[in-house]
Amino acid sequence: MELINKSHPEEFILLGFADRPWLELPLFIILLITYPMAMMGNIAIILVSKLDPRLHSPMYFFLTNLSFLDMFYTTSIVPQMLFNLGTSKKTISYMGCAVQLYFFHVMAGTECLLLAVMSFDRYVAICKPLHYTFIMNRRVCILLVATVWLSGMTYAVSEATVTLQLPLCGRNTLDHLLCEIPVLIKTACGEKAANELTLSVVCIFFLAVPLYLILVSYACIGHAVFKIKSSEGRKKAFGTCSSHLIVVFLFYGPGISMYLQPPSSISRDQPKFMALFYGVVTPALNPFIYTLRNKDVKGALGNLMRSIFTSK
């Protein structure tokens, strides 16, 4: 199957908030602030996880991968959004749309599964502490991350390729801020029920199943935490787990509302606000959520800042 449709338009017009132009300047300013924040926050997480020996554990290995994902996730869409909001030209080339489609969904699919792996790591750490180093050894961690990345790529390449084959019948207007699979399916003409069904089935495995496993893991973790006699131990376990749960709900909530319903039933503005939330807000908030509720990360960041200023 060809990756792109030969009868495609030269470019797409991204309407965004063209019907509400007063929203464009505030959104442009918000993106201009949150995008550098997301990049700096995630880079800081990666640096401290690599440089501080106390953070050389499976939990921070997975957190580093999450930060890496968030950086590329938000980079795949925000520069294009800034360009469209800041200029009168609201277009993206067909090839640019295809590239954005692949990268955005690789990162999104991978993050869905990575959050489930991170919950499994917390489950083993709290519920099976004596077997933690044996179960979550380096080889297993690398294998889990490789599987997650490979699964995300397989999902994105298969779904995006099938979507790009849909006939557009001369349509080149997308009522969105970016190129996203549900919106492209909704824009396409002809028979697309099979594409909608396939997307829903695939997203059950990438959204509903991982979320179910995460909730089961945390039910077991909650039961184990209440058995911990030390109040300090309970506080530490609650701190690391609550950070992850906040991130899970921030990511899965909008994702499920967008992808687990037929594209034809999606309201006009829903994709725009959902994309802003899980593509911009969540990657910007994640580093702060993990930092503010984790003493180890806060301590490592403090040490990194002190070493930078001391060297100067």
UniProtKB/TrEMBL annotation:
The keyword Transmembrane helix applies. It is found in: Cell membrane. The chain crosses the membrane at residues 25-48, 60-82, 102-120, 140-158, 199-226, 238-261, 273-292. Its main location: membrane. One of its GO terms (molecular function) is olfactory receptor activity. Coiled coil: none annotated. Residues 41-290 form the G-protein coupled receptors family 1 profile domain. Keywords: Cell membrane, G-protein coupled receptor, Membrane, Olfaction, Receptor, Sensory transduction, Transducer, Transmembrane, Transmembrane helix. It is a multi-pass membrane protein. One of its GO terms (cellular component) is plasma membrane. Belongs to the G-protein coupled receptor 1 family. Putative odorant or sperm cell receptor. This is Olfactory receptor. It comes from Moschus moschiferus (Siberian musk deer).
